Structure prediction request, 365 residues.
Amino acid sequence: MHLQPSLLPLAALATLLPAIHAAPVACPTGSSQILANTTYGPVPGQSSIFSNDTSKTAPFPAYFTAPIYPTTNTSAGPDDLLFQNLLAAEWVIYSFYQRAVELFNTSSFAALGFPNTTYTRVTEIRDNEAGHLRIFQNQISSSSIKPGACEYYFPFEDAVSFLALGTLIEISSMAFLTGLVQQAQLNVSKGALMAVAETESRHNTWSLIDIWNVSPFAGPADTVYPYANQILDTTSAFIIPGSCPGANPIFPTPSQHLPTFSAANDTTSLVPGTHVTYNFSEPANQPRFEPGREYYAVYFHGLDNITTVFDTAANTSTIPAEFETKGVIIAVITDAPGAPTLESVLAGPGIILEQPTVIAVALAE
Ligand SMILES: *[C@@H]1O[C@H](CO)[C@@H](O)[C@H](O)[C@H]1NC(C)=O
Ligand SMILES: *[C@@H]1O[C@H](CO)[C@@H](O)[C@H](O)[C@H]1NC(C)=O
Ligand SMILES: *[C@@H]1O[C@H](CO)[C@@H](O)[C@H](O)[C@H]1NC(C)=O
Ligand SMILES: *[C@@H]1O[C@H](CO)[C@@H](O)[C@H](O)[C@H]1NC(C)=O
Ligand SMILES: *[C@@H]1O[C@H](CO)[C@@H](O)[C@H](O)[C@H]1NC(C)=O
Ligand SMILES: *[C@@H]1O[C@H](CO)[C@@H](O)[C@H](O)[C@H]1NC(C)=O
Ligand SMILES: *[C@@H]1O[C@H](CO)[C@@H](O)[C@H](O)[C@H]1NC(C)=O
Ligand SMILES: *[C@@H]1O[C@H](CO)[C@@H](O)[C@H](O)[C@H]1NC(C)=O
Ligand SMILES: *[C@@H]1O[C@H](CO)[C@@H](O)[C@H](O)[C@H]1NC(C)=O
Ligand SMILES: *[C@@H]1O[C@H](CO)[C@@H](O)[C@H](O)[C@H]1NC(C)=O
Prediction:
């Protein structure tokens, strides 16, 4: 049955809720399969549900959580793998906003002094993200599986930490899209990725102005980072291990499972020029530094990168003072200046927000 949650009365929604959030079923004839028909249902850009569906429950197509199985046996499309990775990441991002729509209401934000439109904007962003799910499903050819939803854990406790994490997620999306666009084979894929990056940038612009009260601008260019899957891999921290449908491709593919890091607890600033101590915070996934060998911290900002020495005795490096204190700086630990290859990256990436500084410091703690 095709359900349109926004049209149902509230009591009916309450009883539907367990079904909507049921674990994805790996069944080729499951209801998600109707989405294999790319013209089925509301069309992003033509239906207002991807902008102003105000329901608290999952909107179309997110209430179909199972993978969509291939319906043809021809060879995969040239950008299928790219969009499979992106769709799996989009399930993370969409679910982050869906969780907030369920947990909060207008007064959750207004009571803290945020504009009284905040909850509405968060809901609109959730709707946009649902539109991204449909867009990415339809960018994958009928010969490849379209990943379904997993279960997720998001480390926010309240409205403020949700908004801060949301700003980081939008920034990360903008950054990995600059990498994915470099991998895309088809021109139409490049255009689609660019259009979605612009949307994430609009979301971020809204929060910088309305929520954080800072200038929304990041200088003449946002930050380009070529190894998109490394950033996608960091979003897998939000996926509850073992919760993905068995038929989903491994996310992301390929993946290096690089050690992640954060700035040490006593860090109070991450502005350019700061000497930072890195903390490789996953005990079971540590980088191995060979004695006597030179290692580097490479920082990406705008279209450029600057290499600094990484002191493996103290695990420290200095964020290049040359960079403007604006937008995003992406840091990686490498065994070669300039991070010339994927394999030269040994840890990271770490995403540093230069504005608002209040979030940058929260992330450093
Ligand atoms: C796909 O969906 C459209 C819109 O609902 C419908 O008109 C069409 O018949 C469907 N195609 C198939 C093959 O089921
Ligand atoms: C959503 O937008 C459409 C078209 O712009 C409008 O007709 C509709 O009333 C809006 N719905 C809500 C709930 O705001
Ligand atoms: C594709 O081919 C395999 C092996 O011949 C077959 O099992 C499967 O049903 C086919 N799938 C479709 C969608 O035609
Ligand atoms: C918002 O949620 C709070 C806490 O659950 C509740 O007390 C309040 O009545 C809700 N406000 C509205 C406008 O729904
Ligand atoms: C929301 O805030 C604006 C500006 O502060 C105010 O004019 C408006 O009355 C408020 N609306 C509600 C529903 O509280
Ligand atoms: C992409 O666009 C360029 C420039 O118009 C064209 O030369 C090229 O053939 C296109 N590539 C594909 C895969 O369509
Ligand atoms: C490094 O991170 C781990 C894991 O979060 C934490 O337990 C440890 O205290 C941190 N160390 C420093 C110096 O920040
Ligand atoms: C660093 O912060 C973590 C998490 O808050 C805490 O568990 C740990 O004890 C702190 N470590 C140091 C060295 O302060
Ligand atoms: C630096 O990081 C390495 C790799 O995780 C670790 O073995 C070493 O103890 C760290 N050094 C300091 C001073 O924390
Ligand atoms: C970093 O900058 C150097 C120097 O401009 C360049 O050669 C290198 O390709 C850049 N690295 C990446 C990963 O783009």
